[in-house]
């Protein structure tokens, strides 16, 4: 982009703030009315107590935490560009809400952060690690001792789940009958970010040896141990699985890992995209994978594509591809947003935007008036807009 085009560029930080306000006001609430807590309702419209009786989606909350940290980093600003609170000076900062959310997750999860799924715990560990770095950068001490205990507890779980069974990798659950990319990749990224490069590399090497699909250049789902002891390959390729693999490759660095990262970005662009109308043109955007858990998948991939877009160790063409995928996907979700009229039952505490669960379909069709809206799909849109904002805020090379 040249300087003449800069004034016409979207204000991604503004758009990310809009998403952050809409999601936190629509879904955010205290846990059991307890002060100092925060939790995300699973569905709206729905009553506070009704939401607490719904199934517990631990890993949705972990990604809610990650989104709050994204907003918190923007609140810090940068040299010459002071930050502002995403929801105004009289409301809690993103960092404070994030800290309350960790407390809420622990209480809602029966006074522990440990559960039966190692991938859930890996997502919470990655988000808590980022929250602790945000607290360090803002010189906040509240919550840091708790963060350290959370990370210590979760690290022990990852050590237990990353075994030599099936030649390596990380188990998905405490049933220990499935080793897969959803658990192995974020655990590898966590190890890479916490000073355990050998463990991280071993997990990535296992993924390359057992789950990499060379024709498409992407990672398959996992290896399942049957009741008879046979091992079955689950061949499905999900968008989100590619994200933490990419993140771990970039975090570890080195010629081989960076080459693999560049290939992975190109494979994503070739295989996991679809055409969508954008501002009068047709452009390639990342496909989405529905509602429920799938409502988070594309957002997770975009988070790590943004890291690739900003990594100067990668070829310029790869960085451009990654940035284009992020920005096109963000533009599709922003263009497709639905603005809530005041009389809409979803217009709660000033929340006013609903985003589509698909990049090729506007929210007025995927979430028409009167439809219930899931937290996962709105977190996905927020995550994508934060990724675009991070790329836009980066200094020019």
Automatic annotation (TrEMBL):
Pfam families: Glyco_hydro_76. It comes from the Bacteria. SUPFAM superfamilies: Six-hairpin glycosidases (SSF48208). InterPro entries: 6-hairpin_glycosidase_sf, Glyco_hydro_76, MUG_Protein. GO terms for biological process: carbohydrate metabolic process. PANTHER family: MEIOTICALLY UP-REGULATED GENE 191 PROTEIN (PTHR47791). This is Putative alpha-1,6-mannanase (GH76 family). It comes from Arthrobacter oryzae. The lineage of its organism: Bacteria, Bacillati, Actinomycetota, Actinomycetes, Micrococcales.
